[in-house]
Write a structure and sequence with these properties.
Helix content is 25%, strand content 15%. It is an alpha+beta fold. The strands form three sheets. The protein has a four-stranded antiparallel sheet, with no helix packed on it. Strands 4-8-7 form a three-stranded antiparallel sheet, with no helix packed on it. The chain has a two-stranded antiparallel ribbon with strand order 2-3. A hairpin with a 2-residue loop joins strand 2 and strand 3.
Amino acid sequence: MPVYSLSVTAGNTEVTSFGKGKATVRIPYTLEANEDSNAVVIYYIDGNGAAQVARGAYNSSTKTVDFVSSHFSQYAIGYNKVNFSDVAPDAWYHAAVTFNASRGVVSGTSDVTFRPNAAITRGQFIVMLLRAYGIEPDAGAENNFADAGNTYYTNYLAKAKEMGITTGIGDNLFAPEGNITRQDMLTMLYRALDKLEELPEAAKSTNLSDFSDVNLVGDYSRDAITALVQAGVVSGNQGKIEPQGQSTRAQMAQLLYNLLSL
């Protein structure tokens, strides 16, 4: 895959990092026959020469791969289509699963299956959320949840706790193997976006009071869900927000797709 070296100078000094600032970059890209635009991935080459996934997406209107970066280095465009036997091409979640799987944000439950309708656990959610935004897990944390265990989500839970994305369910517990409710999922997503200073702006006139089950929304999640509804990230289902309902793996993939593919 072709490699692009991006740089900017201030006087005679090359600027490689923008601090809290970010630059928007567009690289022309022509889809080849039968390529799925959601499997086109932008990578940056790290200091060890390894390709790391950068947050970006193919823009069909400009025929470019667009991404936002806080630093300049070498970048490359690759294609990484991941197929699952239980994710049909005409499924409503096909684009979302393809987009996230190609970037390593989500993985299958086997080499060939995704189980889109399976409930997502609290531990799975934290891993997907942090991977989606390039937040590295904390391998050396000394202050983790008591039930964090020693598994794939352990260091991700430590990082989420350290960042204030979650405070758990009480008594220093997180219940990682339990299924996550929609309101807990949206609350943690909101906190993560707030910490990253990436909360989307309100784009719709829809309000939380427009949903018939608004009385079921917990006080702790009301501000978070309101903001995500008004930003158009969450649309509800048949006039309901279903805050206490369980979320599926497909729904989580779609939620991240709505945010990351913009």
